[in-house]
Amino acid sequence: MRSERSSEQQDVSTELDGASQSAQNQAQREELRALVSRAVEVIPPNWPLRTFAYRNPLIGFEQLPFDEAVSQAKKLLGGEGYLSTAEYRKCYTEGRISEKELLSALRSRLPELASQDTISVGERSLNQEEVLLIHFVYGIDPLDPKLWQWQLTEEDATHRIRPDVPQSIKDRLRSQGAGGDPEAGYVHSLWSAAFLKGFDLSQDGSGGHHGHSPATAKAGGSAQDEHGMTSQRLRTAAEVIDDLTDSDLKREINEQLIKWCAAFVDEGMADWSMPLRSHGFYRAWRDLAPGEAARWTLGISDWARRVEALPNRPEDALAASLHRLRVPDQQREEYLRRHLSQLPGWAGYIRWRAKNPDYPEQGRHPIEPMEYLAVRVFYEAELAEKVCRSELNINPTLPDLLEHARSQDLENVDSHAHGHDAYTETICRDVWRLFHLAQFLELRPQDLQSLPLADARSLLSWLDRFPSDAIRPVWQEAYEKQYQNSLLTKLVSERQRSAAGISHERPRPRAQAAFCIDARSKPFRRHLEAQGDYDTIGFAGFFGTPIDYRRLNREEDLLLCPVLIKPKYVVKEEPRWTQDPEVQRYLLGDRWSQFVRHLFHQAKANPASSYLTFDLFGLVFGLAMLGKTLFVKPYELVRTGLRHWLTPPIPTRIPVEKFPEQEREAYIDGNERACIAELLEQRLDCRNGAAPLSQDVLEEFRLAALREPEDRSHAIRQTKASERLGLSVEQEQTLLEELRYQYGLNARNHHVSVEHFAASRFSPAEKSAVVENALRVMSLTKGFARLVLLCGHASTTENNPYASAYHCGACGGNPGGPNARVLAALANTPKVRQELRNNGIEVPEDTWFVAGEHNTTTDHVTLFDLEELPESHRPDVRQLQLDLEAARLLNAQERLARLPGAPDWSSPQAAAGYASQVSRDWAQVRPEWGLSSNAAFIVGRRSLTRGLKLDGRAFLHNYDQSQDETGRVLEAIMTAPLVVCQMINFQYYFSATDSWAYGSGTKVLHNVVSGVGVMLGRHSDLQTGFPFQSLTTGARRFHEPLRLLTVIEADPGRISQVISRHVVLQNFFNNQWLYLVSCHPTTGEFSEYLPGGTWKAISPPISS
Fold first, then answer.
1. For helices 908-919 and 874-896, angle between their N-to-C axes, nearest 10 degrees
2. Taking each helix axis from N to C terminus, what angle separates 661-684 and 729-741, rounded to the nearest 10 degrees?
3. How far apart are CA 118 and CA 364, in angstroms?
4. Which DSSP category does 236 fall into?
5. Nearest alpha-carbon partner for 285 in 318, 266, 307, 270
6. Looking at the whole model, is its pTM more than 0.85?
């Protein structure tokens, strides 16, 4: 009995221990998941190509001041956040940056410059500002000791004036020399004086700042913890090993992850899909990796056994690998962040997928950062063990590797110190700088000799305030201020010109046209206004209608809204007249077209049929290539004719009336029963005398298939109908499983369909709310014209992986025409008009809303749904179309003048023709500039910018404070369109400062991979930004990397209130990611927002 009791107690204890261990493991997994979530925050999400979304590559650093964020991101991601010093100096030389702006930027960093004391040198007085100006413009930097002998022997630096000293100064300096070579005489005497003064400072113990030598920085560079890790830059085990040996583990790990990620996330490009993807990335990799020849490709013996021994869960696998490497707990987050930064493009795409579980591919083939890291760190642990055992003879752990690296670095430091003694260091640091500074200051040797040590010390300390890495942020500010001052001068002038007429009532305009705030729309708006009495309006291009849109006869849903939000409404394009014979012809032709394309793709991909395919159609391909390359216009005419013959254009509509609830349920149930009938007919058609498929039979099967797993009956038979149909229990089970998993007829999909239909179209309350919100945000609540054009925009390009980047950013990288069509249809509804009147917005009965779409590549404007246009408005629309065509011609001529390679067209018609041609040219690397050159976001009444030519550099959003009593409209603009404009601006900014790290290099190397992104060549990270062809002509930058200047025509106090309520805006403006200027709507006074929330007037008040 005692033995039995003891055994029972032992069982209970074991069970409790097991439960405790399980709880502990679960807690550790949760902790590791939280750690990975924090680590991935600095990696910007990377959208797939089909919905290219602008984003700030440094979005994970926005809580830091801009300069610090750029510095931190460079350490982690390796990208430059500023132009090179040489390029800034070139801009200064060419007048792009003025001395005034450079000094202004310097004073903003060092306010004490204005009251600095001076020092006397010879016959002149010097202040810090004068010395720093020389330092910024010419660079008075220490010399690398390794270059000293070269400068002495090859450059003859101690006998020749520095080459970049201005010629006028050189001539005056030479006049101080004597003998046959006055320049050498003067320079040698000056060198001797600088030499003596530098060593006097050294002996006095007060020379310039020594800093860290390169070897010291590599060995440590900052404080180390007990594990030998630096707080400045944590390195992974693979990086340390690569530094210590001739191995290239980082590259090997990257290549493995690129291979597996590209195969896993493929969306139809691969001929053979990776199997087991439905299990998730980690499980699929673990099941397939044992079959790869890693023993030969990676040199890892017993590879299959090692992979098969991994845990089932990625959290456990990652924890085990970190434990193998002995990564300290307090360093793990930074360690994983470092791993994610090795391939930020792939990691960013995986982050985006994990954050969007509704994305169809994520639902079918899930992948998460945890899985990615589990695989990546496992490869690192295996490769580290191989190299440490075979080459370094140390344990494959991070502490041991860092200790070994530190010992090697210390040896290098000793060698460095022996090679560059204190004598050389003093020459290169103090003597060199005094010698060069004296030349630019036109000092005589005796001036330098008589300079007191304290004053010499001051000169060097002034230079020390801005070492080479601290100069570029100041240059960048001066670079930006030059453009900002130019723009603000224009705005002040325009404000003064139009101030007297602001309060006057204008006659009813011919039409009002609302365009996207996109900078490309501004020139077109200006040309349209020049055609007559038109009022144009700037508004976010999705027109306040976040829709899930399905085109006619397509299965793909387009999410037409900013990527920061989810669509609220579901709409589908339908034929306007379903009984029209042309509609049937279109649908048939479209189905055949899709079938042929699919068949051709399969034929090309199949090894057996690919040779025959090209033999049969080689001539056709050759003619098509010839036409697309040399005869673009005729080829396009033939292609368009064939397309219209096969699928003739038909009138369509986008219904907005919501289905009644009963109709929704009947529609869903009917589709599900039709699915069941199709399957049952396949199973029963060979059975003689099969019972007819009544609606009761279909409904019973439907309900059985929809039962949740826990609700499914454990009875032998689940439906009585199956027995009546003569099906066995096994056949019934097979049929139900096939319905659930192959046909997707299950509870989850049924629930999704119900939700989808619930969101379909608009209820009466939703209609009026959407229209009212849109009109208020665009400040169009009174003074309506007879016609109101709502004009979205799109783009037409050929052979362009980044085609979606040229579409509407507010529509998620899609055309904006459907959004305009939906809003116009809603606004023309009589019941909506009545509800608007009840809410204080009186839309006249004769006002009609027309939807359109502006093609920014060709400048064509297409108007939609004119079949519904009242007869009374047809003359107005005909006049509008004529004026739109005139604006198109003028805008094309203006726009193409900035496009490299475009002829200098004297005729607007010829320019417009060329614009259409380049939109179809598959060899064209820049059919348009897109949003390149964007630099400002202006929020205010049209009168603020109406007469200005802004060169397509400014986003324009209408706003009238007098129509926004509560300030909610301003808050909506600052927290939505402004955020999107910031994302666009920084996508271009960082692509311009470092196209290889933050952009996408060059189009020459682009290779679309998996249908989701672009690689450079065969193997690389996913590219995340723009190639330099989208930013520069080669000879000059078209896009200047400037932080966005935001100008808001509103009371500064109201703007401050909005900022105080939103952390994201506080980060933007207090951390100097963006600049902010207020234009007071009544006084016209311009004020600049300063970090911390204060305002500073930057122009005198303007009387209204």
1. 80
2. 130
3. 72
4. -
5. 307
6. yes
Could you count the other beta carbons within 10 Å of the beta carbon of residue 367? 22
Q: Which residues of 885-908 are buried (b: 16+ CB within 10 A; e: fewer)?
A: ebbbbbbbbbbbeebeebeebeeb
Query: Exposed e or buried b for every residue in 494-520, given b needs 16+ CB within 10 A?
Result: bbeebbeeeeeeeeebbbbbbbbbbbb
Cα–Cα nearest to 645, from 592, 601, 597: 592
Is a pLDDT exceeding 80 seen at residue 885? yes
Q: Which two tokens stand for residue 352?
A: 């985006």
Distance CA 291, CA 284 (A): 12
- Tokens linked to 489: 């001068």
Please answer whether residues 319 and 370 qualify as being in contact, where contact means their C-beta atoms are separated by less than 8 angstroms. Answer: no
Q: pLDDT tens, 662-713?
A: 666 777 777 788 888 888 877 775 444 455 678 888 888 888 888 865 555 5
Q: What is the CA radius of gyration of the chain?
A: 35
Q: How far apart are the first and last CA of the chain?
A: 103
Please report the DSSP string for 174-227 in residue order.
HTT--SS-HHHHHHHHHHHHHHHHHHHHHHHT--S-----HHHHHHTSS-B-TT
Q: What is the SS3 assignment for 766?
A: helix
Strand partners, 1014: 1008
Question: Can you give the residue ranges of every domain in the chain?
Answer: 45-110+470-499+931-1104, 238-394, 509-576+760-930, 577-650, 661-759
Lowest mean pLDDT among 455-459, 511-515, 845-849: 455-459
User: Which is nearest to 1093 in space by CA: 1052, 1064, 1062?
Assistant: 1052
- CA–CA dist 351, 261 (Å, integer): 13
Cα 978–chain centre separation: 15
530 in Cβ contact with 886 (< 8 Å): no
What is the spatial distance between Cα 41 and Cα 355, in angstroms, rounded to a whole number? 12
DSSP state letter for 228: S
Number of helices and strands (H, E) in the chain? 43, 20
864 and 854 in contact (C-beta within 8 Å)?
no
Determine the 3-state secondary structure of 674 from DSSP. Answer: helix
Alpha-carbon span 1075 to 431, nearest angstrom: 41
Q: Which residue stretches of 553-660 are H helix?
A: 581-605, 607-630, 632-646
Residues 1043 and 472: their CA atoms lie apart, in Å, by 14
Choose among 277, 430, 261: nearest CA to 348: 261
Q: Beta partners for 1086?
A: 1079
Residue with the two structure tokens 């009761």: 696
Q: What is the dihedral of CA 375, 376, 377, 379, to 10 degrees?
A: 90
pLDDT in tens, 606-635: 666 666 766 666 777 777 778 777 777 787
CB-based contacts of 344: which residues, under 8 Å, 6+ apart?
Answer: 43, 44, 46, 77, 1021, 1024
Question: Among all chains, which residue has been given the structure tokens 């991101």?
Answer: 73
Q: What is the largest CA-CA distance in the chain?
A: 123
**What's the order of all strands across the beta sheet hosting 861-864?**
534-539, 511-516, 787-794, 848-855, 861-864
Distance separating alpha carbons of residues 384 and 653, to the nearest angstrom: 62
Type of residue numbered 601:
H
Residue-wise pLDDT for 725-763, tens only, equals 778 888 888 888 888 777 778 887 887 777 766 667 888
What does 148-166 look like in DSSP terms, one character per residue?
Answer: HHHHHHTS-TTTS--TTS-
Whether the Cβ atoms of residue 411 and residue 238 lie closer than 8 Å to each other: no
The mean per-residue pLDDT over the stretch 853-860 comes to: 95
CA distance 158 to 435: 9
19: left (phi over 0), alpha (psi -120 to 50) or beta: alpha
User: Which string of b and e fits 587-622 if b means at least 16 CB within 10 Å?
Assistant: bebeeeeeeeeeeeeebeeeeeeeeebeeeeeeeee
Q: Which residue has the tokens 């132009």?
A: 83
